[in-house]
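Ex. 9. Protein: Aldo/keto reductase.
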Amino acid sequence: MSSPLLQLSNGSKMPQVGFGLWKVPNESCADIVYNAIKTGYRLFDGACDYGNEVEAGQGVARAIKDGLVKREELFIVSKLWNSFHDPEQVEPILKKQLADWGVDYFDLYIIHFPVSLKYISPETRYPPGWFVDDASTKIEYGKSSLESTYKAMEAAQKKGLTKAIGVSNYTGALLLDLLTYATIKPATLQIEHHPYLVQPKLLELAKENDIVVTGYSSFGPQSFVDGDMAMAKDIPLLFDHDVITSIAKKHNKTTAQVLLRWATQRGLAVIPKSSSQQRLEQNLAVTNFDLSDDEIKQISSLDKNLRFNAPLNWGIPIPLFS
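Predicted structure tokens for Aldo/keto reductase:
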């Protein structure tokens, strides 16, 4: 079992269905990554802020050692955290993350959030998180512009530390601004994307500029209920929504598969995760059936412009999407 490949502007091919490492526990991460590779996953979406890159790399190393896969067959993604936006910090932290993964290059390295926070050295606290203090009470912004950070990302790509660069959580305005100064176009844009947050105009803008979109939190509130987010608990779960369940029944698929197919059939990449072998296989097998145009419209009509992954929703006083 394998995923279809999407062509990136840098010439690379990225699996359309990958495995997201957000909230994967450290103690089981290596085994989960190893098993995902064994199941057929080739794209792994990590980040400094997830705090499990060392363990993810251990899973990759074991799979390579056992002959399950070669490094060049994998597509490893990582992200630049907000505390390392100063141009002089981009290359050092990228190299640290490569060392954590135990690889020589990333296939894709992206800016995690479009906000600069004060630098915190890895020796002081790693991952540094959103707050400048250990008590998680004080936000202190950095001084680096997004342009200066992106230029440092371009330099890292030219040095071969990453094959492609991209951005995450950018709005249309920020993407338009980036395109005025980028000498290397971002290969991908990663955004929260589910039927409650469709963002059709942003998707159009990315497509017009040959930027592949990766959608995260494909299941909407389901991804946030276990994080004790109050607003997520007040929203009907997409897994139980009449529109989704009726379409799933018609196709003899799970509601998760329908949600992932709604995204992939419209050209997006997705990065679900699961520790269940059955769901691992089901999530990977979401491109072998098609929804009708009417079914896609029905699902898209559920749009509420409802964003879960905003700092304010986590009690972090940064009005990033306000």
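Check your answer against this statement. The mean pLDDT is 96.
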